[in-house]
Amino acid sequence: MTKRIVAFSRLKDSHLEQLRQEFHVDYFERLDNTDDPDFRAALAQAHGMVGSGLRITPELLDEAPHLEAIATISVGYDNYPVDELTRRGILLCNTPDVLTETTADTGFLLIMTAARRAVELAEFVKRGDWQESIGESHFGSDVHGKTLGMIGLGRIGAAIARRGALGFGMPVLYSNASPKPALEKELGAKRCEMDELLAQSDFVCVTVPLSADTEHLIGAREFKLMKPSAIFVNIARGKVVDEAALIAALEMGEIHAAGLDVFEQEPLSPESPLPYMPNVVALPHIGSATHETRDAMAQRSVDNITLALKGKRPISLVNQDAWQHRHQ
Ligand code: DGY
């Protein structure tokens, strides 16, 4: 029997071709929501799913009685009910490693552009406002030598910290569930309580995954603890931050500026004041969005689902217990 896959994100021809050599593929290049009747019909027969950007609920899983594995084209998996997938013995695969350096580049891009006001000042030039030598009112803040506070020091956090410590001579503080002795040695990073990190850092950069424990981890109290000169950077997930509290902190001058790649609602609501604030750099969730990296992520997902549906262990498996469940 040829197994069936639902592909619910745009894939390039070579990736689709690779899947079609092994499986029947129902391809939904652009799917805005899961109510699409063709998608539901395909799901009812699917053994595998590949894609990103859809919220997968237990109710939706009820519609997919043959499902064996899902390969998300992302490292984050907050759109998936992991416990429920595990309970049903459905493998969830993601794409770590291949996007680490690209996403860290984005993190550092936000640090640099927010500190040096690059977007605001590029707009100033574009408007034709550069009529004389710029003065103090257009100066930014240094990055090199300033203290970098990393909230989360996983793969991406470590890659940002490495850029800061080795490239820009930044002392690094970090808060993380577990200590990272190798990074402490390599980068001179110092683990501390989050409150201490917030009070001492010039740049506060969030890279923790979204979970019940990290939702609104940073709110009004945390912004009040930061320096008025602090620059806040979020490349994790929007919901890790209480966005209303962030807006208030920026408006009241409790922090100096923010660089944001992620938002509580994506795409960002047209009503949000954030993109119009001069001290905010807002990007449309581009963390991993380069040709090379998105290609590598799609390839990893295609490889993951192919292995999983052939009964082999996928390269990056989120729920190890589901593997035991299927193969014990
Ligand atoms: C990820 O892979 O989780 C990035 O945020 C892109 O969605």
UniProtKB/TrEMBL annotation:
The reaction(s) this protein catalyses: glycolate + NADP(+) = glyoxylate + NADPH + H(+); (R)-glycerate + NAD(+) = 3-hydroxypyruvate + NADH + H(+); (R)-glycerate + NADP(+) = 3-hydroxypyruvate + NADPH + H(+)
InterPro entries: D-isomer_2-hydroxyacid_DH, D-isomer_2_OHA_DH_cat_dom, D-isomer_DH_CS, D-isomer_DH_NAD-bd, NAD(P)-bd_dom_sf
Record carries keyword Zinc: no
A Pfam family it matches: 2-Hacid_dh
Domain D-isomer specific 2-hydroxyacid dehydrogenase catalytic: 6-319
Domain (D-isomer specific 2-hydroxyacid dehydrogenase NAD-binding) ranges: 109-287
Keyword terms, alphabetized: NAD, Oxidoreductase, Pyruvate
GO molecular function: glyoxylate reductase (NADPH) activity; hydroxypyruvate reductase (NADH) activity; hydroxypyruvate reductase (NADPH) activity; NAD binding
Record bears the keyword Oxidoreductase: yes
Xref: PROSITE patterns: D_2_HYDROXYACID_DH_3
Highest taxon, organism lineage: Bacteria
One CC-aspect GO term: cytosol
Enzyme Commission no: 1.1.1.79, 1.1.1.81
Protein family according to the UniProt entry: Belongs to the D-isomer specific 2-hydroxyacid dehydrogenase family. GhrB subfamily.
Protein name (record): Glyoxylate/hydroxypyruvate reductase B
